């Protein structure tokens, strides 16, 4: 996957998606999440691929190992670049996800990179302690999941910018640190808790940023994208 920002296509139809993408042609990374995939199915991936986009399929699988393995085998055939599971599903589940991807690409397709979601960027310290009953600080929980993900053979994690540096130290610079929760200094946080600017992501060592509403909700999405891309690359 290219290192340019990954635009979250959180739309409820193919029609809205392709109307939005008119300003971008095939030169950007895109993310298809649950809303769009559940609405449009595999056909949306085929259309995006035809137009040349690099695709992160963000379905965050979390189930028993056998189910995740067989689902990944099917999803691998879509020809996507990046896909994910919840690290909380455990080592056996993550290994099964990899096996499924390997099996689904054994005919010669390139295996998509596989990453584990550590703690959602909409989660804060309080939620980790009170609702998940995790007694260590949130950053320790994220780091623990990152190490587990690496030990399971995966290519990286989804985390917030605030954990990118410690994960790089523990798991290496090559280990993917895909970071949503990106906000410009003057924009609202919405439902996100662990937010950061593109500049902060650049400085912290994130390998990729995922940006949704800061681009899709902008008056001029292409201009917002260019501004975010320049900040992320440290050229602004
Ligand atoms: O921890 C996570 C994992 C995934 N996401 C997804 O990223 C985008 C973020 O959208 P914004 O509009 O920029 O907040 C969205 O599709 C999420 O499902 C995440 O935010 N945090």
What does this structure look like?
The protein has helices spanning 14-21, 34-40, 42-50, 65-76, 91-104, 125-130, 138-151, 161-171, 198-204, 213-216, 221-232, and strands at residues 6-8, 29-32, 54-61, 82-86, 113-117, 156-158, 176-179, 208-211. It has a single domain (6-232), classed as Aldolase class I (TIM Barrel). Strands 1-2-3-4-5-6-7-8 form an 8-stranded parallel beta barrel, surrounded by 5 helices. Helix content is 44%, strand content 15%. The protein is an alpha/beta fold and 236 residues long. It is globular and about 45 Å long. α4 packs parallel to α5, α7 (138-151) packs across α8 and α9 packs parallel to α11. The model has no long low-confidence stretch (mean pLDDT 97). Substrate binds at residues 10, 31, 58-67, 121, 183, 192, 212-213. Pathway: Pyrimidine metabolism; UMP biosynthesis via de novo pathway; UMP from orotate: step 2/2. Residues 4-228 form the Orotidine 5'-phosphate decarboxylase domain. InterPro entries: Aldolase_TIM (IPR013785), OMPdecase (IPR014732), OMPdecase_AS (IPR018089), OMPdecase_bac (IPR047596), OMPdeCOase_dom (IPR001754), RibuloseP-bd_barrel (IPR011060).
Brief write-up:
Its EC number is 4.1.1.23. The protein is an alpha/beta fold and 236 residues long.
